[in-house]
Amino acid sequence: MFAMVPFWHYNLKKIAKGSLVSSIKVLVFAAAALTLTACSAPKSNSVVLTPSDSIIGGEDVVAGSEINTSIVGIYDHKIGAICTASLLPDNVVLTAAHCLGDDPSKMFIVFAADMFKILESQDETVVRNAVRQVTSFKAHPFWNPLVEGTSKQWEWNDIALIKFKGNVPAGYKPATFLADAKALSTGNTVTLAGYGVSQVKINKVDPKTIEDLDKAIEEGDVMCSPNKVNCVRMESSGDGVLRSVEVKIAQNMPTEVVVDQRRGKGSCSGDSGGPAYVVKDDKFYLWGITSRGDASCDVNGIYTNALTYLDWIAKASANMK
Question: In this structure, how many other beta carbons lie within 10 angstroms of the beta carbon of residue 135?
Answer without folding.
Answer: 19
